[in-house]
Amino acid sequence: MNLVWGFFLYILIGVLLLSIPLFHKTNISFIDNLFISTSAISTTGLVTISITDSYTILGQIIIMILIQLGGIGYMTLTTYYLLFTTRKITHWHKKIIGAEFTMPNTIKISDFLKSAILFTLIMEIIGAICFFIAFTSSGMETPKAIWYSIFHSVSTFCTAGFGLFNDSFMGYQDDTLINCIISILAISGSLGFILITDIWYRISGKSKKISFTSKIVIYGFIVLLFLGTLVTYFTEPLVHSTGKNALMKSFFQTMTAMTTVGFNTISISDLSLPILLLTVFLMYIGASPSGTAGGMKITTLTAMISVLKSRILGQKKITFLNRLIPFERLYVATSTFILYTSLIFLFTFLMSFTEQATFENILFEVASSLGTVGLSRGITGDLSAIGKVLIIILMFIGRVGVLTFGFALLAKGTTQGKEINFVKDDLAV
């Protein structure tokens, strides 16, 4: 419950700040400010209004700060400050961090926090420098390039999908450098701080091997990214009809859905139905359980595949990569799968009543908001007031996690604290 209230407080502060007229270029309704604040904290990137045309530079800075807070996580900065100043972390802080970032017990929270903060700063600084080089090379004026570089570096690494271009990055669809910068930053953020801490442990000699969670994330991510790129390249006419570099566009489209970064270099509203469904599936899955990406998570997918395999083969034990998956992990994965799928069905059903849009567009919007992706078929700005509220709720649930949100609503007493601390071994789901 602390985690839920923490994110709610961030959103409340954000909407109060964004409601200050000083930060506006035009009149902005309260519901739109609330939508933008929730989208920023949840690192989704769906917008009902143009960020560039509606907010001043100060308003954009507020949005960037909200993205940073949402991406790096509730309590992460304060807990790191507490660790830095007192060298101690309270049990309450450990429980909140454990709920927000499901971690195997092979990783210490103090090491995780240090690597998360340091890696975030390093990647965002490098990303801003690279963006500045790319933007100035394309003819952008230096003052504008500085701000656009900082904003997009933070937004990309946090997989927020907020952009200062009204057409996302469609104007840079053939710019190899921009595509590479976004891809590297988004993949780095989405694969998660567990993997980074694991690699640091391996390099520093604290561990002889990376955790089972990291192996699952790496293998699953590579397989899905490769297959998604391949299918998009061979079946989507749009990537071949819009200029050159069809393979790069296919890769970017797959990457942006999996990492939930939410940028696009081709028109999402013009995607063919097969690739539209593939994109929905990739947004549904997401990436690592302890990164900046949303979605159901690769670890949950592999657990469900393992359950299916064991039933088909008639095996009593459920394994993946020759490792036994504990039943408590399977319970978490199954619960997440059921809740996540049920929410997509429920909200698609509800929005079918409130919105004048096609079924595939509504389904896409729902999957994008719950997965905190930010891709849209162009209906976000035309949503009704009720539709905006429904999407706000979905983005909020997607950020805190469907299972954590469920426990916050239903759990009582100390059971809640015990249940949301999911991980006891080196597997995080």
Written overview of the protein:
By secondary structure, the protein is mainly α. Helices cover 66% and strands 1% of the residues. It has a two-stranded antiparallel ribbon. Strand 1 and strand 2 (323-324) form a beta hairpin. Residues 412-425 have low confidence and may be disordered.
Low-confidence stretches: 412-425
Alpha-beta content class: mainly alpha
What fraction of the residues are assigned to beta strands by DSSP?
under 5%
Instruction: Give, in order, the helices and strands.
Output: HHHHHHHHHHHHHHHEEHHHHH
Instruction: Note the gap between the termini.
Output: 20 Å
Strand order, sheet with most strands? 1-2
Estimate the global geometry from the Cα principal axes: globular
Q: Give a short account of the largest sheet.
A: 2 strands, antiparallel
Number of H- or I-type helical stretches: 20
Helical proportion, percent range: 55-70%
Quaternary state of this entry equals single chain
Mean pLDDT rating = 85
Number of DSSP strand runs: 2
Overall radius of gyration: 21 Å
Provide the fold topology.
Layout: H1 2-18, H2 30-41, H3 51-54, H4 57-72, H5 76-86, H6 91-100, H7 109-137, H8 142-157, H9 176-191, H10 193-204, H11 212-235, H12 238-241, H13 246-258, H14 273-285, H15 298-313, E1 319-320, E2 323-324, H16 327-354, H17 359-370, H18 385-400, H19 402-410, H20 415-419
Antiparallel strand pairs: 1-2
Helix pairs in contact: 1-2, 1-4, 2-4, 2-18, 4-8, 5-7, 7-8, 7-9, 7-10, 9-13, 11-13, 11-14, 13-14, 14-17, 15-16, 16-17, 16-18, 17-18, 18-19
